[in-house]
């Protein structure tokens, strides 16, 4: 199946990486930060900060000073691989080095490099959840706790608004997800195992050049439990296949969450689908620059409750280099939407936690006059 989107780029150009680093350094100077320790993991939630300045999705730690080259410490096998050059000429401004002591080498290598710099200002860290206790303790011993600051917000702020190149990659991811959904409509039937569905989904996404992806799956009749792996369930008549199809083309995710009817939805699921649609339609209508995320969330939650269902989860999240890209579409997220932000919107309507439920949604780009749905699909069938 051929996507409707024509490929223009497959990764972020090096010129854009350099511009990002320049803007990061402007923020560092304004806050008196002499060097950043940027940490990432090779997973769906914590690789984005590292990839934002390197195009490398394998995690590791980057030492980012105010002047001169960055230093990226990664696994020795990766550091010595010529495949690094496939992401562009990053070696002209990033020194790629192997860490030297297994999984714990960062305390000696990256922190050791910062200590040798003898910086006088603040030392910031980015991606605290990926740093680990041993590395943080080493950093504290090297520069003193009073000089360490969490500077993750610098990256989150810059990453929130996407460039034209980033949007192009996300459009490609959204098109791959659409095509994958079309493939699944031919596969879904009573008796099909969730292992089969998961395998065919992964196969499709990799064959369409998504180097990594997230597939939340639930094939347990009417129930909605947001499993991240198959559990041996088989599709049932009257139930759904729930999936979050989430390819990451060029490092950038787009998400297509869907509850696919196995055949005819049961009356209970039709009621829940109608409640979902009421909440979703309201939330979608509120997506525009200046709208506050928590206001959108509360409005959707209240509308779903008016129709006899609950949503105990967030209604979506920012999306980009990470699946959850800095904030969630929840009642406590007082984030104002801006032109160029991207987000996945997928409220759910359930009877209870662990009970029957229905959810679906799409990836959106916030535009000057509202929001653009990046998917070509429409999951409302008039229930």
Automatic annotation (TrEMBL):
Q: Which SUPFAM superfamilies match?
A: Creatinase/aminopeptidase, Creatinase/prolidase N-terminal domain
- Please list the residue ranges annotated as the Creatinase N-terminal domain: 20-161
The name under which this protein is listed is: M24 family metallopeptidase
> Do you know which Pfam families this protein is assigned to?
Creatinase_N, Peptidase_M24
Start and end residues of each Peptidase M24 domain: 168-367
- InterPro entries attached here? Creatin/AminoP/Spt16_N, Creatinase/aminopeptidase-like, Creatinase_N, Pept_M24, Peptidase_M24B
Query: Which organism does this sequence originate in?
Result: Leucobacter rhizosphaerae
């Amino acid at each position: 199946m051929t996507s409707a989107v024509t490929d223009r780029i497959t990764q972020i150009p090096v010129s854009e990486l350099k511009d990002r680093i320049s803007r990061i350094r402007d923020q560092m100077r304004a806050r008196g930060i002499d060097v950043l320790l940027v940490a990432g993991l090779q997973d769906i939630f914590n690789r984005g900060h590292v990839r934002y300045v390197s195009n490398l999705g394998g995690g590791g730690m980057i030492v980012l000073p105010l002047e001169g080259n960055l230093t990226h410490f990664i696994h020795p096998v990766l550091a010595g691989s010529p495949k690094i050059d496939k992401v562009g000429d990053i070696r002209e401004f990033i020194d790629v080095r192997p860490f030297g002591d297994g999984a714990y080498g960062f305390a000696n290598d990256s922190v050791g490099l910062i200590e040798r710099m003898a910086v006088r200002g603040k030392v910031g860290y980015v991606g605290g959840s990926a740093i680990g206790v041993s590395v943080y303790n080493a950093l504290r011993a090297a520069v003193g706790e009073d000089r360490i600051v969490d500077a993750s917000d610098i990256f989150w702020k810059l990453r929130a608004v996407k460039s034209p190149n980033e949007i192009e990659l996300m459009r490609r991811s959204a098109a791959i997800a659409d095509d994958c959904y079309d493939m699944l409509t031919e596969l879904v039937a009573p008796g099909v195992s969730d292992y089969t569905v998961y395998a065919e989904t992964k196969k499709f996404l990799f064959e369409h050049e998504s180097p990594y992806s997230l597939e939340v799956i639930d094939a347990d009749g009417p129930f909605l439990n947001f499993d991240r792996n198959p559990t041996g369930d088989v599709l049932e008549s009257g139930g759904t296949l729930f999936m979050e199809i989430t390819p990451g083309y060029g490092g950038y995710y787009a998400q297509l969450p869907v509850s696919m009817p196995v055949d005819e939805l049961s009356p209970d699921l039709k009621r829940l689908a109608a409640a979902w649609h009421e909440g979703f339609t309201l939330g979608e209508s509120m997506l525009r620059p200046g709208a506050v995320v928590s206001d959108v969330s509360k409005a959707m939650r209240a509308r779903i409750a008016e129709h006899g269902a609950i949503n105990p989860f967030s209604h979506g999240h920012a999306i980009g280099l990470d699946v959850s890209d800095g904030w969630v579409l929840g009642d406590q997220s007082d984030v104002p939407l801006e032109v160029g932000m991207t987000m996945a919107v997928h409220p759910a309507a359930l009877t209870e936690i662990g009970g029957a439920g229905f959810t679906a949604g799409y990836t959106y780009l916030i535009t000057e006059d509202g929001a653009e749905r990046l998917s070509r699909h429409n999951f409302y069938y008039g229930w």
